[in-house]
C-alpha cells in the first residue's frame, strides 16, 4: 500500500492536540475536518468542549480552519458562532483546498496539520499536499457514512501486535 494512505499521527481525539503539542510538532496552523471529527453528523452547532478546545488553540496564536466536504450551510452553522474560518465543499482528497488556504494564510504546508477521521479523504488530502496528517477516532458510528468499515482503513488503523 502506498504511503499516501498512512497517517503521520494517530490520536484519540482533537482534544489530544494542545498548544504544547503544536509547538512540539513545529506547527503554526491546523486544518480540521468537521463531520465526525469536531462534531457528530447530526450536530448543528459546536458543544462547549469543542468551543473551549478551539479557543485554547487560537489563544496560543495558532491558526485553525475547518476544511470539510460538507455543504456551506452545514459548515457555516457550526463555524459562524465561533467566528471560525472554514472551507466547505473542500473536495478532499484533492489537495487543492489545503494548498490554497496555506497560501492565503502565509503558511508553508510543512507548518500545518490536517486532522480528520478518514484515511481516504483527510489523510490522503494531507499527504498529497505535504501537510502533516493526523487521524482521530470518529465521534460517532453511522452505517451510511461510516467509511471506517472499509477493509483498508481497518488494516491501517488496527495496532499491529509485536
Write the layout of secondary structure elements.
Layout: E1 9-11, H1 19-24, E2 29-32, H2 48-59, E3 63-67, H3 72-79, E4 86-87, H4 96-104, E5 112-116, H5 119-129, E6 132-136, H6 151-157
Parallel strand pairs: 1-6, 2-3, 2-5, 3-4, 5-6
Poorly predicted ranges = none
Terminal Cα span: 20 Å
Number of self-contained structural domains = 1
CATH class: Alpha Beta
Could you describe the 3D structure shown?
- By secondary structure, this protein is an alpha/beta fold.
- It has one domain (3-157): HAD superfamily/HAD-like (Rossmann fold), CATH 3.40.50.1000.
- It has 6 helices and 6 strands, in the order E-H-E-H-E-H-E-H-E-H-E-H.
- It has helices at residues 19-24, 48-59, 72-79, 96-104, 119-129, 151-157, and strands at 9-11, 29-32, 63-67, 86-87, 112-116, 132-136.
- A 6-stranded parallel sheet has the order 1-6-5-2-3-4, with helices on both faces.
- Strand 3, helix 3 and strand 4 (86-87) form a beta-alpha-beta unit.
- The longest helix has 12 residues, at 48-59.
- The chain starts with 8 loop residues before the first strand and ends in a 5-residue tail after the last helix.
Amino acid at each position: 500500500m502506498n504511503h499516501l494512505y498512512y497517517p503521520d499521527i494517530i490520536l484519540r481525539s482533537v482534544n489530544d492536540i494542545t498548544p504544547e503539542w503544536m509547538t512540539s510538532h513545529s506547527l503554526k496552523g491546523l486544518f480540521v475536518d468537521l463531520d465526525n471529527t469536531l462534531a457528530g453528523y447530526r450536530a448543528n452547532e459546536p458543544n462547549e468542549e469543542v468551543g473551549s478546545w478551539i479557543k485554547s488553540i487560537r489563544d496560543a496564536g495558532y491558526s485553525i480552519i475547518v476544511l470539510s466536504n460538507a455543504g456551506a450551510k452545514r459548515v457555516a452553522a457550526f463555524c459562524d458562532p465561533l467566528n471560525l474560518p472554514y472551507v466547505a465543499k473542500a473536495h478532499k482528497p484533492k489537495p487543492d483546498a489545503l494548498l490554497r488556504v496555506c497560501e492565503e494564510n502565509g503558511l508553508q504546508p510543512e507548518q500545518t496539520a490536517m486532522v480528520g477521521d478518514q484515511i481516504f479523504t483527510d489523510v490522503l488530502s494531507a499527504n498529497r499536499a505535504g501537510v502533516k496528517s493526523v487521524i482521530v477516532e470518529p465521534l460517532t458510528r453511522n452505517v451510511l457514512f461510516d467509511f471506517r468499515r472499509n477493509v483498508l482503513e481497518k488494516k491501517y488503523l488496527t495496532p499491529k501486535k509485536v
